[in-house]
Specification:
With 714 residues, this protein is α+β, with helices and mostly antiparallel strands. 52% of the residues lie in helices and 16% in strands. The chain has 4 domains: 156 residues, Beta-Lactamase (2-Layer Sandwich), CATH 3.30.450.20; 91 residues, Beta-Lactamase, CATH 3.30.450; 104 residues; 163 residues, Histidine kinase-like ATPase, C-terminal domain (Heat Shock Protein 90, 2-Layer Sandwich). The strands form 4 sheets. Strands 1, 2, 3, 4, 5, 6, 7, 8 and 9 form a 9-stranded antiparallel β-sheet that branches. A hairpin with a 5-residue loop joins strand 10 and strand 11. Helix 9 crosses helix 10.
């Protein structure tokens, strides 16, 4: 019985899972389809917006062309008298005294090419300006005709002059010029006081006086220089716009065009050119949306808005002051998607859900749980927690045993590798130190030896030279005493050589040579001090002598150059006893730290002028003290830019450097740290200096320390 109850629970759980998964998948699918449908709707609306803008652009392009041609003709006629050919076609219209129009007996073909021109003023009172403007208006007929052929929605193309005439295409016997036309929007909105920027404009919808129904006008002002002449206009019937919105079919939605002053310009059912009035745009919205029109048009264009139970889209037209608007009941989209989704999704999803539930259960028992146990086992082994074998199918046991064996071997290899890396780094430092000190020591020792030989020769001969000089001067004095009146030739020679000056200057010259030889001997001694080879045992060493010899080696880097003055060395030496150490290796420590200090100053100098460096020169301060605990402290401080804390923490790391490639190896300070701490049992630290630079502090025991290793052989 227990088995069946357990089986029933499994089946019930599986069925519940399938139902939940099916409902979730259905909701996900419906949501995906809904978003997809909204994207389709939005894309179709964008396409309609682009198409309507294209239609409007063709009209505005033609208006721009008419405006340009009209103004160009006026300019041409001003420079060249107009042809009498067009002008002779204008005749007094006898039924209406005071009016003129094109010659009334034109045949049908001519009328189709010319249209009609009519105005008010006697022929004998026409000024040259009027004649030029009439000639320009006649030249526009060819462009009027081409415009009507290219844009089927254009009903009339015409020019209206402030000199009381109009030229219109196509010709119509029912149309006559009246002065009241100068009060209509297609002319009035082009006047300078209404259109100071001379831009094209659109009128509101109106009833065509020639009987072609509702239409709107696109017009532009025409100027001759800065003088307003009139307007060129294109009348568009609303039939073309109605056809455009009717071609957009989507569910129970509605697409329409809203013009200026809230006029409804196009609608599938509410607008027709045959109508005698223009409906307000509010008539195109459902009653639920009308209170929210302000909110709708304040939102961003092209964004789908959910207002009540409706979805609304709108876009402002680029080439006309109109809006294209679309609304659709949200329920229409929801019900259509539900009908298409339920039958095609629920049944397959139920079956798949059932199979997925069963497969999941089997996988959970035979794979997921053991795999999770294996992952936990690996994590425990990685943390060295000595995990126990979990309860998993027997087929998984070899995997756990293999993992345990691999981790044990890996830990052993890691320990060996870490020991070898430490040994390798130490050996590398020793090798670099050994080769560097060996090469430098041999070079410096050789130079000192080569200096000693000639210097010893000079020093050995200076004393006899002084004695010989004194004897010769005594001999000369004796000759002058015994022969006070030498012959003229000898007297002239003595005057030429200035014997008195030679007797005074030659001893000084020999004394200067003696001082120079002594200085050379001091330099040679410093070189030998720096290059002295360390043996297996320590020896007592004068720290100050080691620092001075290092400064002598680096003296060429301290001298002034064309970029900076000399780097000043400030020595604050205390009274120190000799330190039991390896002198050559300590000299290398001093060399590395001082060279780094010079590099830091050179880097800081890149942002300073020569004048600033002259006023506040670079300084390196070396201070030595004997501390109370019997240790010697050497502080080397520079006035550079200092270093960030992150760099200071790693400054003694192996191979760490902040210098450019090829300028630093990352070994100098690491070697110095090893020499001070491991070999001499001291300490080497770096801290920020009060001057803004960096301060390296070396602390060494005075007596022989218990060293961890022997000296680095050089």
């Amino acid at each position: 019985m227990e088995f069946f109850r357990r089986y029933t629970r499994i089946i019930a759980s599986t069925f519940l899972i399938v139902v939940l998964v099916s409902v979730g998948l259905f909701a996900l699918q419906f949501r995906t389809l809904y978003v997809h449908e909204i994207n389709i709707l939005q894309n179709r609306f964008v396409e309609s917006t682009i198409n309507l803008d294209s239609i409007l652009k063709s009209t505005t392009d033609q208006i721009d062309a008419l405006q340009v041609v009209a103004e160009a003709e006026l300019d041409l006629n001003r420079r060249e008298p107009p042809s009498r050919l067009f002008y002779n076609l204008i005749r007094e219209n006898s039924p209406q005294p005071g009016f003129y129009n094109l010659q009334p007996d034109l045949d049908v073909q001519q009328k189709g090419s010319w249209g009609r021109l009519m105005g008010r003023s006697p022929l004998n009172q026409r000024s040259p300006q009027l004649r030029r403007e009439l000639d320009m208006a006649l030249h526009l007929y060819a462009l009027f005709k081409a415009t009507l052929q290219d844009i089927p929605s254009v009903a009339w193309a015409y020019y209206t002059s402030k000199q009381a005439f109009m030229s219109i295409y196509p010709s119509s016997e029912d149309w006559i010029y009246e002065d009241v036309m100068l009060d209509l929007d297609f002319y009035k909105l082009g006047l300078p006081e209404n259109n100071p920027n001379r831009k094209r404009f659109w009128t509101n919808a109106y009833i065509d006086t020639a009987g072609k129904g509702l239409m709107v006008t696109n017009a532009a002002p025409v100027y001759e220089d800065d003088e307003f002449k009139g307007t060129v206009s294109l009348d568009l019937t609303l039939n073309e716009l109605n056809t455009f919105v009717k071609n957009f079919s989507y569910a129970q939605g509605s697409l329409f065009i809203v013009g200026q002053d809230n006029q409804l310009l196009a609608h599938p059912t509410l607008v027709s050119s045959a109508e005698q009035s223009v409906e307000p745009a509010t008539e195109a919205f459902p009653a639920e949306l009308r209170p929210h029109l302000g909110q709708i048009f304040q939102a961003a264009p092209m964004a789908i808005q959910t207002v009540g139970s409706y979805l609304v889209l709108y876009q402002n037209m680029k080439y006309a002051p109109w809006r294209l608007v679309f609304w659709v009941p949200q329920s229409t989209i929801v019900f259509s998607l539900l009908g298409a989704t339920i039958l095609g999704s629920i049944v397959p999803l139920l079956g798949v859900g059932l199979m997925l539930a069963i497969a999941t259960w089997l996988i959970q028992r035979d794979f997921i749980a053991p795999a999770q146990g294996l992952v936990n086992y690996i994590q425990a082994e990685n943390q060295n927690l000595a995990p126990t074998l979990p309860a998993v199918p027997e087929a998984w046991h070899p995997w756990f045993l293999t993992i345990s064996t691999i981790f044990q071997e890996n830990r052993k290899l890691l320990q060996e590798l870490e020991a070898k890396i430490v040994a390798l780094q130490s050996a590398q430092l020793q090798l670099v130190q050994s080769e560097k000190m060996s090469a430098l020591g041999n070079l410096v020792s050789g130079v000192a030896h080569e200096i000693n030989n000639p210097v010893g020769f000079i020093a050995g001969n200076l004393k006899p030279a002084k004695e010989y000089t004194v004897s010769l001067f005594k001999l000369i004095d004796l000759y002058q005493t015994r022969l006070p009146h030498p012959d003229p030739e000898l007297k002239n020679f003595l005057e030429e050589m200035d014997l008195t000056y030679v007797q005074q200057d030659l001893p000084k010259l020999l004394t200067s040579m003696t001082l120079g030889v002594e200085r050379i001997c001091e330099i040679s001694t410093s070189l030998r001090t720096f290059s002295r080879a360390d043996k297996d045992n320590t020896t007592n060493f004068d720290i100050h002598a080691g620092i001075d010899s290092t400064l002598l080696i680096l003296k060429h880097r301290l001298k002034a150059n064309n970029r900076r003055p000399e780097i000043k060395i400030i020595k604050k030496y205390g009274l120190l006893p000799e330190v039991n150490c390896f002198p050559g290796q300590l000299n290398q420590v001093f060399m590395n730290i001082l060279a780094n200090a010079i590099d830091a100053l050179e880097e800081a100098n890149q942002e300073r002028s020569f004048g600033s460096l002259y006023t506040n020169p670079n300084c390196i301060t070396i201070q030595t003290t004997l501390e109370e605990d019997g240790w010697v402290a050497i502080c080397i401080t520079d006035t550079g830019l200092g270093m960030p804390e992150a760099v200071r923490q790693r400054v003694f790391d192996h191979l760490f450097t902040t210098k450019a490639v090829g300028k630093g190896t990352g070994l100098g300070l690491a070697i110095a740290h090893q020499i001070v701490t491991q070999i001499h049992g001291g300490s080497l630290s770096c801290r920020a200096a009060l001057s803004g630079g960096s301060e390296f502090v070396i602390r060494l025991p005075v007596g022989a320390a218990t060293y961890e290793s022997k000296a680095l052989s050089v």
